[in-house]
From TrEMBL:
Classification via Pfam families: Aminotran_1_2
Cofactor(s) essential for the protein: pyridoxal 5'-phosphate
The name this protein goes by in its record: Succinyldiaminopimelate transaminase
Domain Aminotransferase class I/classII large: 31-389
Domain of life: Bacteria
């Protein structure tokens, strides 16, 4: 067996099930589940129509590289979204469809890590657990970069010594960050791109929350825009990972993409050809329709804004609006996040995720401890009720 299995830790939701297994709610309140970031807004009608209209694709094997139509739709979206020059993204060489970001973020480590002794894969801490599992199963050692409260939950990349960067083969970043909701500025992204060129590592930029943000005039910056600002028109050593799950409220479609450095895309396509994970043709057609449309994204973003504003109104100064995404990163009274999670479930029938389950203790400190993550994915009425219950719990 792959020796990396020995180092894998239970997935956060498996741990949550164990934490709550013996807890019973006796108050008669309906359960409101804010533990998992599964969007529940209505899927766009145009996606449904495209799926139905292309079911004849069931009779054909899809191409791993995807259709010309889908790659062109993705390239066009990237150009529009990030203010890139027309033609800046080559749909034939710099875009590859994927089965959502989760699958692709895991697979890229298997593709680019060379398993040399001492190989490291860097990631913010707390983090999306796929990053760690991908590193371990690729034969690398994780490098955890803390996102501490004292630093405004921003990862301290400058604390990593140059000698350590030289062992890094892959850096995962996530902006807006899951779970804290913090956003990396364009200057920060440019700095990371410069580090990647200097120390010869790949950046995997997880931007799946990038289309949920508070100000229409200030969308979060992306890694491809940072490359262009530095004159790296080929997006050297940089890949962006994006999904329709959050943007278009279709997590069950399992559709996303990776785009950037053509040399990396070429090798990743070869890997994925053997891996066998091509998107069905009807999914590709529905995905192309979604990437070409922004109206449904703006409508969904407005709903999230209302839910987040209602949360701040109910909780006051105890919580801050995320700079992006739909999660609240809430400090808990007493600092014991598993105990607070149990009490919320028992007394108020709210299911949330302990922050310590999303991070690793490094140097004796778990930067997720003392927090819980709340994903505001339920409908507006349920989210408002959840915030009322949460405010009561915080006042107990």
């Amino acid at each position: 067996m792959n020796p990396g299995f020995a180092d894998l830790q239970p997935y956060p939701f498996e741990r949550l099930r164990g934490l709550l297994a013996d807890v019973r709610h006796g108050g008669g309140l309906p359960l409101i589940d804010l533990s998992i970031g599964e969007p529940r807004h209505a899927p766009p009608a145009l996606v449904r129509s495209a799926l139905i209209d292309n079911l004849d694709g069931l009779g054909r094997y899809p191409k791993t590289a995807g259709s010309d139509e889908l790659r062109a739709a993705i390239a066009g979206w990237l150009v529009r979204r990030h203010g890139l020059p027309e033609g800046a993204v080559d749909p034939a060489r710099q875009v590859l469809p994927a089965s959502g970001t989760r699958e692709a973020l895991f697979a890229i480590a298997q593709c680019v890590v060379d398993r040399a002794p001492g190989a490291r894969v860097a990631m913010p801490n707390p983090f999306y657990q796929i990053y760690e599992g991908a590193a371990l199963l690729a034969g690398a050692r994780p490098l955890y970069i803390p996102c501490a409260a004292a630093a405004g939950y921003q990862p301290d990349f400058d604390a990593v010594p140059p000698a350590v960067w030289r062992d890094v083969q892959l850096l995962y970043i996530c902006s807006p960050h899951n779970p804290t909701g913090r956003v990396l500025t364009l200057d920060q992204l440019e700095h990371l791109v410069e580090l990647a060129q200097r120390h010869d590592f790949v950046i995997a930029s997880d931007e799946c929350y990038s289309e949920i943000y508070p100000d229409d005039a200030a969308p979060p910056a992306g890694i491809l825009a940072a490359c262009r600002a530095l004159g790296l028109d080929g997006f050297d050593r940089c890949l962006v990972f994006q999904s329709l799950s959050k943007r278009s409220s279709v997590p069950g479609l399992r559709s996303g993409f990776v785009a950037g450095d053509a040399r990396l895309i070429e090798r990743f396509l070869l890997y994925r050809t053997y891996h066998g994970c091509a998107l069905p043709e009807y999914v590709q057609a529905a995905s192309a329709a979604a990437w070409r449309d922004e109206a449904h994204v703006a409508a969904s973003r407005a709903i999230y804004r209302r839910k987040l504003a209602a949360a701040v109104q109910a909780l006051g100064a105890r919580v801050a609006l995320p700079q992006g995404g739909f999660c609240l990163w809430l400090p808990v009274p007493g600092g014991d996040d598993p105990a607070f999670t149990r009490s919320l479930y028992a007394d108020h029938h709210l299911r949330v995720l302990p922050g310590s389950y999303l991070a690793r203790a490094d140097g004796g400190v778990n930067p997720g401890a003392g927090h819980v993550r709340l994903a505001l994915v339920a409908d507006e009425a349920a989210c408002a009720q959840a915030m009322t219950r949460l405010a009561a719990a915080l006042n107990d």
